[in-house]
Every structure is written in structure tokens, then in C-alpha cells.
From TrEMBL:
Location of the active site: E415
Classification of source organism: Bacteria, Bacillati, Bacillota, Clostridia, Peptostreptococcales
Cofactor note: Binds 1 zinc ion per subunit.
Top-level EC class: hydrolase
Protein name: ATP-dependent zinc metalloprotease FtsH
Length: 589
């Protein structure tokens, strides 16, 4: 606060000077003689007046020839000046009654005050903007040469490959630019917590040998207007100073939530932050070797603007590890730990369904602590068992990690049903993956079924899609009994109904309804809808029965895929095809 003291001293000095000047000017001013206008006119006639100064004010000043000053009433008449001039009296014109000295003083005073005021305000705003800069300067954790490599990440092979491609891009961006290849500026990694998203981003930075700038989306959520946006700009400024680097934004959903267009409760501030991010992302060139990696647990909550080309146009799922991946992760974390020979890592992997990588690491660590406490020779199954309860005790949803075995079986058979019917009815569809590991969307499991790209759907294809959707429930019924079917098919039933209703109402694919648009004809009349419901129900039942027959005739295949799924948790297309091939072989023998 030294600056403030200087300012106070300055003001005091100016005041002191002003006061002294004023007192002196009062003290040494000759006394002014007040005379009447009559007296004045007499003196004029007697040629005793040297000069007068006239102004608009009520009084008029002048000087006698002997140098004495006087004042008198100002007659304010036209021709006064001339009447003086003809008497050889000097006439000064001034607009006010202040003396030049006083005027000068006033000017000095005003100048001094203005100077001080400007200095103060400038100083203040400098301070404010400095504070602001400090706040918008986000804390970034920078790491270079961290020892995390891709080999430190187990499982998630597809995602790993995808990200590994970027190493070369960061190293030699010019190479890609020469070919006009637009490399991604932004990548979103999405998936459940603790699955290694941060790990992936770190590995990319260290494999490419560049800086790793890490921030969290929640750092940008600020109460002060414009601060979040300021922080975004400072982040990118820092990145550009570094040259090539990997920017990691954890919890991107904190800034990139879907915007509430025209709705209530949309926050201008978060909009501003998101806009700043979008602007910065479009601002740098792909050839700079900067890659932004964002992580979120929920892709579906993000604003679409973030996912457009030139922004985060690559989205990579980082899922929970399946059996093999869990085994790999456990191997990784037992490498530098004394493990009892009797301990089966595969066995632990089998017992840790739905464990994330972070949880597996935690498990091994807790087991190591247990072993250390006992001064044991090595980590044994007992230490793991104890650790198991410590790890899942911290969970909000214990049942999810410790899912009942019967639920796993049901999921496996349900998904096998979808896969088998897809393979039988639509061999041209790619079944890229069947898994009983829940995806982030929360379903029990899922099968990825990608139909070939085309313009129209045929009636047959639509019917086949209904059958594929129904297959999950049908298998549940066939294997576990009609009374044991589960709620797991609700999405399937919705999808099947949507397709069938569209076929009947819009596409003229029902003989009973005919070639009409149902909605145009009937609107939403209750009686007509009852008829529609009946037709739909009957048709659905027919398709259900047909599919059931198909599955009954291929029971063995369903068993084979389901049991394989229970074993491995995830099957890729190759493994599914192998199951089918084995079935054919058996049938032929
Ligand atoms: N696939 C994996 N291989 C090896 N270790 C893993 C893996 N997944 C997670 N881990 C372990 O879990 C820890 C946490 O992982 P990380 O922070 O990368 O998860 P995340 O997906 O970013 O989680 P969050 O969504 O909570 O930020 C890692 O430091 C690592 O020890
Ligand atoms: Zn299903």
C-alpha cells in the first residue's frame, strides 16, 4: 500500500501550496477603494483615471493614475467603452472578475486534482485488472515426460489404437498438412469413472514427448461474469506458448452441457464459457500439433455444438474392462508386488465383474496393505478377499459390482438371442460386438448391430428388425420360463412397437389397414385407435411366434454364444462367427 501513501502526500502538498498562495495573494493585495459612480465620473473628468476593466459583472474595476485600485458600480450602458476611450482612458475587457493570478491558480489547482484523480483511477483499474488476470489465470497442472506409456494401460485396445494414431500427428503435423489431411483437434473420451481416460491422455502426451496441460471443467464454473471464458482463453494462450502439447479437460460436461435454448434457467455465464471454448478450438490450426482431449462420464449430456467437425469430432468410448482386460490390469498391478504362487489372477478377474481399472488397482493396493500389516511373505487370496470388501464397501451401489450371478446369466442369454437372430435373418448386418458389460447408457448389456447403409428399408428388413428386438425376451422365456422373464426387454419392446406401428400407419404395409395414412384418415379418434391396437397386437404376436420357432430350431447356437459370453463377457464378430461355424460342423457330423 506504499502507492496510496504517496498519493496522500501528493494531495496534501498540493493543498498546502494552494492555501499559502491564497493567503499571500490576500495579504499583499493593495486595499481596493470603493467609490460611487458619481465620484468615478468626476475623476474621469479630472483625468485622474488611468484604466478601467469592464466586464458583465455588477462591479467595475479600475486604476487611478497614482496606481491605486478602485471599484465602482458598473453602469452597463452601451457606448461606455467609447466614452472612456475618448477621454484617453485605457479600457481592458475581461469576461469575469478574476485576476490573471487567480485564474492561473485555479488552473493549477484543477490540473493538480485532475492529475491525482487520473493517477488514482488508473492505478485502481490496473489493480483490478491485475486481480482479474490472476483469477482468470487458471491453475494448470503441467507434466512432461511423465512415465505413463500406452503399455501402462491394459484393455480398451480399440481406444488405445485410436489414440496411438495421434502420436505421429502431434510429432509431424506438417506431414499430414501436406496431404491436406484434417486431423482431429479435439477428442472426447467417454465412459464410466476410473476406466483410464486420464491415463490415455497422459500416455498420448508422453509418447509424443509433449507437455500435458490438465484442467477440470469444474474450474471454469465461476460466479464472476466472464471469468470462465477468461480462463479458457488463458488456457489456450498457455498451450500456444508451449507449442505442441496435449490439453486435457476432465469433466467437460461442467462447461459443455446441452444449452437450454429459449428455456428457463439457462445460464448466460456457462454459455459464454462454452462459446469461448468453441472459439478457441476453431482458432488454432490443426497443424500446430495441439490436441485437446476431453473426458466425460456422459456423452449424451453434451451440447451438440461441441461435437461438430473441427471441434470434438472424435468420440471414443472407454468402457469397463471385460474379463480379459481385467486379467491384464491385475497382471499390471501385481508386477511389482510379491504375489503368492497359489493366487490366481484369472480367478480374481472372474470375481470382479463390473470393476473399473481404478477399482482393480485399489483392490491390489488394499491387498498389499493387508499383507504388509501381517508381515506376510506374499499377497494371498485371503488378503484379496479382505480387500474385496473394503473396495466394494465404499460403493454407493454395492449390487452393481457384486451383481447376482443369475442376472449375469439372464443378460448373457438375452444378448445371445439378439445376436443369433441377427446372424440368422440379416447376415449382411455387422454384429461388431456383443457384451454383457453394461454400457454407459445403463442397459444390462448390448449387441452392436450395424445395418448396411442404404436409402430405403424394405418391409422384410423392418420385420427382421422387429424379430431381432423380440429375440432377447423370447430367449429369456425359453430358457428361464415364462414366469421369470425380466424388465430387461423394455427398450426392445418399445423399438419393436415403433417399427410395427410405423409400418401400419405410414408405410401402407398392413393388409388390414391398406394403403392409407392412418393419422390423416382417423386423427386420434379413440374407436379407430382400438382397432389399430388390435391389429398391431395380433401382428406382433405372429412375429413373436415366428421368431420363437426360429430360436427353438437354433437352441444350440444360443447356448453356445451365451456360455461364451458368460466366459469372456465380450465377443467380437469373429468370435461369434466361430460359434456359428462350430455349430454347422457339429450338425454336419
Ligand atoms: N485400463 C487401465 N489400465 C491400467 N490402469 C487403469 C486402467 N483404468 C484405470 N486404471 C487405474 O485407475 C486410475 C484412475 O484412472 P483414470 O484417472 O485414468 O480414470 P478416468 O477414466 O479418468 O476416471 P474419471 O472419469 O473418474 O476421471 C489410474 O491411475 C490407474 O491406476
Ligand atoms: Zn435386448
Amino acid at each position: 500500500m506504499n502507492k496510496n501513501r504517496i498519493v496522500i502526500i501528493l494531495i496534501s502538498v498540493v493543498f498546502l501550496l494552494l492555501t499559502i498562495t491564497f493567503i499571500f495573494s490576500m495579504k499583499f493585495k493593495k486595499p481596493v477603494l470603493q467609490i460611487s459612480y458619481i465620484e468615478f465620473m468626476e475623476k474621469v473628468d479630472n483625468k485622474q483615471i488611468k484604466s478601467v476593466s469592464i466586464s458583465d459583472s455588477a462591479q467595475l474595476k479600475g486604476e487611478f493614475k497614482d496606481g491605486e485600485q478602485f471599484i465602482t458600480d458598473n453602469p452597463r450602458i452601451d457606448g461606455f467603452k467609447e466614452s472612456m476611450l475618448v477621454k484617453n482612458i485605457e479600457v481592458k475587457e475581461s469576461s469575469d472578475q478574476y485576476s490573471p493570478g487567480q485564474l492561473a491558480l485555479a488552473i493549477v489547482a484543477i490540473g493538480a486534482f485532475a492529475g491525482v484523480a487520473i493517477y488514482l483511477s488508473k492505478n485502481n483499474s490496473q489493480q483490478v485488472s491485475k486481480e482479474y488476470d490472476k483469477m482468470s489465470n487458471i491453475e494448470i497442472s503441467t507434466e512432461k515426460d511423465s512415465n505413463i506409456r500406452f503399455s501402462n494401460i491394459a484393455g480398451n485396445e480399440e481406444a488405445k489404437e485410436n489414440i496411438m494414431e495421434l502420436v505421429d500427428f502431434i510429432k509431424n503435423p506438417q506431414k499430414y498438412e501436406r496431404y491436406g489431411a484434417r486431423m482431429p483437434k479435439g477428442i472426447i473420451l467417454y465412459g464410466p469413472p476410473g476406466t483410464g481416460k486420464t491415463l490415455m491422455a497422459k500416455a498420448l502426451a508422453s509418447e509424443a514427448g509433449v507437455d500435458f496441460l490438465a484442467v477440470s471443467g469444474s474450474d471454469f464454473v465461476q460466479i464472476y461474469a466472464g471469468l470462465g471464458a477468461g480462463r479458457i482463453r488463458s488456457l489456450f494462450k498457455k498451450a500456444k506458448e508451449k507449442g505442441k502439447c496435449v490439453i486435457f479437460i476432465d469433466e467437460i460436461d461442467a462447461i459443455g452441457k446441452k444449452r437450454d435454448r429459449g428455456g428457463l434457467g439457462g445460464s448466460d455465464e456457462s454459455d459464454r464459457t462454452l462459446n469461448a471454448l468453441l472459439t478457441e478450438m476453431s482458432g488454432f490450426k490443426g497443424s500446430e500439433g495441439i490436441v485437446v482431449i476431453a473426458a466425460t462420464n456422459r456423452l449424451d449430456t453434451l451440447d451438440e455444438a461441441l461435437l461438430r467437425p473441427g471441434r470434438f469430432d472424435r468420440q471414443i468410448e472407454i468402457g469397463l474392462p471385460d474379463l480379459n482386460a481385467r486379467h491384464e490390469i491385475l497382471k499390471l498391478y501385481s508386477k511389482d508386488r510379491p504375489i503368492a504362487v497359489s493366487l490366481s489372477l484369472r480367478g480374481i478377474a472372474e470375481q470382479t465383474v463390473y470393476f473399473s481399472g481404478a477399482k482393480l488397482e485399489n483392490l491390489m493396493n488394499e491387498a498389499a496393505i493387508n499383507a504388509a500389516r501381517e508381515n506376510a511373505e506374499a499377497i494371498t487370496a485371503l488378503h484379496i478377499d479382505k480387500a474385496f470388501y473394503t473396495v466394494i464397501a465404499g460403493d454407493e451401489k454395492k449390487d452393481r459390482s457384486n451383481i447376482r450371478n443369475i442376472d449375469r446369466r439372464i443378460t448373457a442369454y438375452h444378448e445371445a438371442g439378439h445376436a443369433v437372430v441377427t446372424k440368422l435373418l440379416c447376415p449382411e448386418n455387422k454384429v461388431t460386438k456383443v457384451t454383457i458389460i453394461p454400457s454407459t447408457k445403463g442397459a444390462g448389456g448390448f449387441s452392436m448391430n450395424i445395418p448396411p447403409d442404404k436409402m430405403y428399408n424394405t418391409k422384410k428388413e423392418m420385420i427382421n428388425n422387429i424379430k431381432i428386438a423380440l429375440a432377447g425376451r423370447i430367449v429369456e422365456e425359453l430358457i428361464f420360463g415364462a414366469d421369470n422373464v425380466t424388465t430387461g426387454a423394455s427398450n426392445d419392446i418399445q423399438k419393436a412397437t415403433e417399427i410395427l406401428v410405423a409400418m401400419i400407419k405410414q408405410f401402407g404395409m398392413s393388409e388390414e389397414i391398406g394403403m392409407i395414412n392412418y393419422d390423416i384418415l382417423f386423427g386420434h379418434q379413440g374407436s379407430a385407435d382400438r382397432k389399430l391396437a388390435e391389429i398391431t397386437r395380433n401382428e406382433m404376436q405372429r412375429l413373436y411366434d415366428e421368431t420363437k420357432l426360429l430360436i427353438e430350431n437354433n437352441r444350440e447356437l444360443v447356448y453356445s454364444i451365451a456360455e461364451n459370453l458368460l466366459d469372456k463377457e465380450t465377443l467380437n464378430e469373429e468370435e461369434i462367427d466361430k460359434c456359428i461355424e462350430n455349430m454347422w460342423q457339429k450338425a454336419l457330423n
